[in-house]
Amino acid sequence: MAKAAWKRPGSPIGRKGPRKANPAYKRRARQPWTPADVSKLKQLAKGNTPTGVMSIKLQRPVAAIRSKAHREGISLRPANRSPYNRRTKAAKRR
């Protein structure tokens, strides 16, 4: 019988999920959101926390965080970012 394909030790090949090698969170997909989870999501969103960090802290996939925030009406956009590109005209000419 043929030998299995060569695989480097610790390689993520053959594993499933977004964090293949060492998952920093356990999968809680399709688990109901508790009121404590929603309040934690609001608190993290207010602090301009990136969604990747939120996924680790809430132990949920990024897509689940985005969809729940959308359903609850929570904005995940950073409050300190300008909505338009406001470069000066002199800088554009360079």
Automatic annotation (TrEMBL):
Residues 84-94 have a biased composition (Basic residues). Residues 1-35, 68-94 are annotated as: Disordered. This is Uncharacterized protein. The lineage of its organism: Bacteria, Pseudomonadati, Pseudomonadota, Alphaproteobacteria, Hyphomicrobiales.
